[in-house]
Amino acid sequence: MRRFSFGLEHVLKVREYAEQAAEAGLAVKSAVCARLNLVLEENARATLLASRERFRPGSVAADHRSAELYAVRLGSEREKLLKALAFAEVEREEARKVYVAARIAKKLVEKLREREESAYYKAVSREEIKTMDDLAAGARMRFASASRKEIAG
User: Fold this and answer.
1) What are phi and psi for residue 58, nearest 5 degrees?
2) Count of Cβ atoms closer than 10 Å to residue 98 Cβ
3) Which domain holds residue 85?
4) Which among 26, 28, 9, 16 has a CA at the least distance from the CA of 103?
5) Number of other CB atoms surrounding residue 26 within 10 Å
6) How many distinct structural domains can be found in the chain?
7) Considering the domain boundaries, does residue 117 fall inside one?
8) Is the terminal CB of the chain with fewer CB neighbours within 10 Å at N or C?
9) pTM of the model
């Protein structure tokens, strides 16, 4: 029996590669978002610690001033990080859409391949059954012919 060969195998390989590239792009965008979230969490921790330390006993006006400036700097960094995170999440969503489109394109070709492979093996099975039926019919005819010759002769 001849093996199944899919005419669009090259297209399937190209689509698999495109899906892998899109998945890698999505992973990079997700990593950027995760990193920004971690930096925001660290900023929140630093803000909390700074607010606790601002009015500790034994501090002087210079300490209050420096703590206030540090809190202002943390606030401005937080705003920048939030803007960067919003931009990164938009990019991640776009990368996700590209990945989903690439995955769907690959799945289409895979389903076509599966369908053609199934049809191919069904046809091969039918041909084998026909061949076996022909052999059995021929053997039956030879047996019947041999039986008639023995009876006649």
Assistant:
1) 90, 5
2) 18
3) 9-110
4) 16
5) 21
6) 1
7) no
8) C
9) 0.71
Rounded Cα–Cα distance for residues 29 and 138 (Å)? 68
- Residue 77 inside a domain? The answer is yes
DSSP string, 4-58: P--TTHHHHHHHHHHHHHHHHHHHHHHHHHHHHHHHHHHHHHHHHHHHHHHT-TT
Query: Looking at the chain, how many residues does it have?
Result: 153
Structure tokens at 106: 């690959």
CA distances from 109 to 9, 17, 18, 118 (A): 9, 13, 13, 14
Does 44 fall in a domain? yes
Judge whether 139 lies within some domain: no
Tell me, what DSSP letter sits at residue 59? -
Which residue reads 């059954």 in tokens?
129
Q: Based on the number of CB atoms within 10 Å of its own CB, is 148 exposed (0-12), middle (13-18) or buried (19 or more)? A: exposed
Among the listed residues 11, 7, 23, 1, the one whose alpha carbon sits nearest the alpha carbon of residue 102: 23
